[in-house]
């Protein structure tokens, strides 16, 4: 082990005995009291020394016996420590590809801020290569999502759509100008390959033959604005039946939409969204029928900057899920409209009449929560933020900085 204080966190001294790691409220952590000798020793935690050398440095800094190990344990418990040499098999393979790892170093630094175990960030980054994402829709939003996921290290990103590329499909982060007139799917797949930090994994037989099993995640980013505004439950029903997580995203008129991220049988789906809307508005089914029966517009409104913004947020939610977190798009639909550009979240709860089973799961979770609350006399809510424990108790002497 070669310990190092996470370099992504800027360090500053609040006073002679208190050091702050990080700047933003989401990540800043304060450690204290820290004496002068320990403060000097912190400078040695840069990943270039093993434990034996660090103990020697500790003696040179006049730290008492055992203090070096105590400091390292304290930093590790606070989530401030990383290991420059830790690596599982997948991470070791990524280390052996310095060209690819260099492309992903900013992503690795970011992951260290949301993980706690030393070496965990590199493991998560390397694990992306084993994931498989299918993006349905090769328009301004879909192709940009696919390229972002590929560039972030996802091993297999497959894009599907029909027709040819039109001039208005060209975007800086999506399809290039030279693809105009080409088959949309092939042009998108080529753009995805060029975005990857290393050679993409070979497509699986299931992906080549159209089989759904094997997809870690499916992103539904249709070019049709009606399909974005009111996703057809029949389209996503096979994904729900096979238990495939899927994320809705796109632009409708001048509004960008991300979510919901559907965890089949656990969270709300497109059918739940439709049923809730019909409950609130009796005219909703009639409107949807009219919108769907009309011929799609050849050039629907899709602001370039809005589409890019939606693609970036959708890709971030997808990566959070692939990395083992539960992003806020589970059970919610994020929307942003021009020109104010204020993001808002619309809750999408499982509907009791929907056959997806999400309502039964939610009911069971509420019952479990009620029983736990009665037993502990504290109604703590289960985490909806991350499958990784993000609210672990802090060791004595550390606290969140109010910045």
UniProtKB/TrEMBL annotation:
<feature type="domain" description="THIF-type NAD/FAD binding fold">
    <location>
        <begin position="129"/>
        <end position="356"/>
    </location>
</feature>
<dbReference type="Pfam" id="PF00899">
    <property type="entry name" value="ThiF"/>
</dbReference>
<dbReference type="InterPro" id="IPR035985">
    <property type="entry name" value="Ubiquitin-activating_enz"/>
</dbReference>
<dbReference type="InterPro" id="IPR022291">
    <property type="entry name" value="Bacteriocin_synth_cyclodeHase"/>
</dbReference>
<dbReference type="InterPro" id="IPR000594">
    <property type="entry name" value="ThiF_NAD_FAD-bd"/>
</dbReference>
<feature type="region of interest" description="Disordered">
    <location>
        <begin position="173"/>
        <end position="216"/>
    </location>
</feature>
<protein>
    <recommendedName>
        <fullName>THIF-type NAD/FAD binding fold domain-containing protein</fullName>
    </recommendedName>
</protein>
<feature type="compositionally biased region" description="Basic and acidic residues">
    <location>
        <begin position="360"/>
        <end position="375"/>
    </location>
</feature>
<feature type="region of interest" description="Disordered">
    <location>
        <begin position="357"/>
        <end position="403"/>
    </location>
</feature>
<dbReference type="GO" id="GO:0008641">
    <property type="term" value="F:ubiquitin-like modifier activating enzyme activity"/>
</dbReference>
């Amino acid at each position: 082990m070669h310990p190092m204080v996470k370099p992504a966190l800027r360090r500053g001294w609040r006073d002679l005995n208190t050091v702050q790691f990080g700047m933003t409220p989401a990540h800043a952590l304060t450690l204290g009291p820290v004496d002068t000798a320990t403060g000097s020793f912190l400078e040695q935690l840069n990943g270039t020394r093993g434990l034996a050398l660090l103990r020697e440095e500790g003696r040179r800094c006049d730290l008492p016996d055992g203090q070096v190990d105590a400091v390292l344990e304290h930093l590790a418990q606070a989530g401030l420590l990383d290991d420059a040499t830790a690596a599982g098999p997948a991470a070791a393979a990524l280390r052996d590809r310095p060209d690819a790892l260099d492309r992903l170093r900013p992503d690795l630094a970011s992951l260290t801020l949301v993980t706690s175990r030393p070496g965990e960030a590199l493991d998560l980054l390397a694990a992306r290569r084993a994931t498989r994402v299918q993006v349905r829709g090769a328009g301004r939003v879909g192709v940009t999502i696919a390229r972002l996921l590929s560039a972030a290290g996802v091993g297999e990103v497959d894009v599907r759509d029909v027709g040819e590329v039109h001039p208005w499909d060209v975007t800086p982060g999506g399809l290039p100008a030279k693809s105009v007139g080409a088959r949309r799917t092939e042009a998108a797949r080529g753009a995805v390959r060029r975005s990857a930090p290393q050679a993409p994994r070979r497509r699986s037989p299931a992906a080549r033959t159209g089989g759904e099993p094997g997809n870690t995640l499916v992103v539904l980013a249709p070019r049709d604005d009606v399909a974005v505004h009111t996703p057809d439950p029949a389209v996503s029903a096979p994904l729900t039946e096979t238990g495939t997580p899927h994320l809705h995203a796109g632009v409708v008129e001048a509004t960008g939409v991300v979510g919901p991220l559907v965890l089949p049988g656990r969270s709300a789906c497109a059918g739940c969204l439709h049923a809730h809307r019909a409950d609130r508005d009796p005219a909703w089914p009639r409107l949807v029928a009219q919108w769907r029966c009309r011929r799609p517009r050849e050039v629907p409104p899709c602001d370039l900057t809005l589409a890019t913004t939606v693609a970036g947020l959708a890709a971030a939610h997808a990566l959070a899920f692939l990395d083992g977190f539960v992003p806020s798009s589970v059970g919610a639909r994020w929307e942003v409209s021009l020109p104010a550009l204020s993001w808002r979240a619309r809750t999408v709860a499982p509907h009791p009449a929907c056959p997806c089973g999400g309502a039964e799961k939610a009911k069971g979770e509420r019952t479990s929560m009620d029983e736990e609350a009665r037993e502990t006399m504290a109604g703590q809510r289960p985490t909806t933020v991350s499958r990784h424990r993000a609210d672990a108790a802090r060791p004595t002497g550390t606290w969140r900085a109010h910045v």
